[in-house]
Amino acid sequence: MDILRYANMALAFGLELAMLAALGRWGYLQGKSALFSWLMAIGMVGIAVMLWGYFAAPRSAHRLPLLSRLGFELFMFLLSGLLLYTSGYRTAAVWFCALSCVSILLAFIFKE
Question: CB 3.0–4.6 Å: which of 10, 19, 29, 111 could bond 80 by disulfide?
């Protein structure tokens, strides 16, 4: 069971990085100029990092309880998947959302 637990930790970390990439890509595509595109991309990633660090990071003083945190993580992942879908990456968005649901389910089972 430990190997599955560690595999899920690796999957969750990969999903977190993919979430930031999806948010940044969507933000970049919203800009009408190069400067605004970059500001939107950096802003979206920055907001996500702050929220994740405050509510979901392991060492956060304000970390949510397990069920609330998993709900928050699922919301962030599915929102990122939706934005990835609207950015034109439909297949990637479906895979991202499916893997997110699997990871959250395993985190619930392992109480992580």
Answer: 19
For 26-54, b/e burial (b = at least 16 CB within 10 A) is bbbeeeeeeeeeeebbeebbeebeeebee
Dist CA 22 CA 92 (whole Å): 10
pTM of the model: 0.94
Indicate the SS3 state at residue 105: helix
Integer Cα distance of 49 and 57 in angstroms: 10
Weakly modelled stretches of the chain, pLDDT under 50: none
What are the residue ranges of helices labelled H in the chain? 2-30, 34-55, 66-86, 90-110
